[in-house]
Amino acid sequence: MQEQAGKETAANLEPEMRNAVMEPKTDIKSLTLEELTAEVTALGEKPFRAKQLYQWMHQKLAREYDEMTNLPKAFREKLREKYTYTAHTLVERLVSEVDGTEKYLFGLADGNVIESVLMRYHFGNSVCISSQVGCRMGCRFCASTIGGLTRNLLPSEMLDQVYAIQRLTGERVSHLVVMGTGEPLDNYDNLLRFIRLLSDENGLNISQRNITVSTCGLVEKIRELAQERLQITLALSLHASSQEKRKALMPVAYQYELNDVIDACRYYFEQTGRRVTFEYSLVGGVNDSQEDAERLAKMLGGMSCHINLIPVNPIRERDYTQPDRQVVIAFKNKLEKYGKAVSIRREMGRDISGACGQLRKGYMEQAR
What we know:
Blueprint: H1 2-12, H2 15-22, E1 26-27, H3 33-42, H4 48-58, H5 73-82, E2 83-84, E3 89-95, E4 102-107, E5 113-121, E6 124-129, E7 132-134, E8 149-152, H6 155-169, E9 175-178, H7 188-198, E10 211-215, H8 219-228, E11 233-237, H9 243-249, H10 258-272, E12 276-282, H11 290-299, E13 305-311, H12 325-337, E14 341-344, H13 358-367
Helix pairs in contact: 3-4, 6-7, 8-10, 11-12
């Protein structure tokens, strides 16, 4: 009854008011330059104004229309009336005393919060961003998924994590990992648009080769992404050497057989020529034995790949612990004996709730 009453109310409104109710504003920062040009000319402006506007958003990183001083005031008013403009609010900023890693909690227009991380390396600054508010994948060792999925992020909301960090630090971001809260391939269309905007030569122009997308293994989406033939790096959150062990750690394994996931990764390499990275969180006494290492090496046999070992970041809600350092080294050595390229991820930001989802979760608990 309420839904029907709502429809009748909308139908009785004046045409102008009805349009305002039924037509939400377009998210302008998610538009490509070509789309933006079409929008701007439809407003009666010259096409070159679109290029100016695009540069203000994606190169000069303006926070609002009023910063765009070479755009006529009347044009800016039109933009304000017709389009939403994404610019995150800084809620919290933590800086590690150990390694200088910075973690950010950003507020979205709808009141949700997301987190991002800035890591400084010798090769440049790398930012880790979130792709969703929350996550529905349910991985046992991850704080991001506690509380489930709230919603997907728009391309502009992914972009502005990078833009906000550049604005706040005054430092260039050269590398990007989509490895924060959320499953990127569960937000597939928005992810693709985000990658293309971020790597556009008219924007920040971050090389696709410097962009890594992490997935827990949505097989059909990995294959679909492979057909796009982008030059990004695919990182698979593997975390187990067998189907049964993967089920114990990652509920997504109940939907996808491990062999099918690995085959999809092989297909990704065949289509793109880009070496796949396998993320493997080492959980003490769970998946860190020499037998695990041997099974893992054989499973990835003949594949061009890199294995990134990650001593698990403990979270309060789980009883998982990190293996001893000697166990981690022995696991790495075993893989290398099988000719695998292996690294141990350098722990960064542990003193500032460095693991995915920890800062957001703590903030939400305080708010409640």
